[in-house]
Amino acid sequence: MGLADDITDRKQLEQRLRSQAEAEHSLATITQNIRQSLDLNQILATTVNEVQQTLKADRALIFRLHSASVGQVIQAAVLPAYPVTNQTRWEDERFPAECYEQYRQGKPLIVPDSATDAGAASLAESMQAIGVKSKIVAPIVRTCGASSSVWGLLIVHACSHYRQWQPSEADFLQQICNQLAIAIDQANLYQQLQSELAERKQAEAILQEREAMLRASGDNLPKGYIYQCSYEPEGVSYTYISAGVERLLGLQPEEVMQNPQLLRTVGFEEDIAAAMQVVRQAIQTEAPFELQMRNHTADGSIQWSWIRETPRRLADDRVVWDGIEVDITNFKQTEAALRASEAQFRRAFDDAPIGVSLISQTGQYIKVNTCYCHLLGYTEPELLSLTFQEITHPVDLEAELAGFQQMISGEICGFQITKRYITKQGIIIPVLLNAAPIRDQDGQLLYVVAHTQDIRDRSKLSG
Question: Which of 49, 343, 385, 421 is the most buried (most CB within 10 A)?
Answer without folding.
Answer: 421
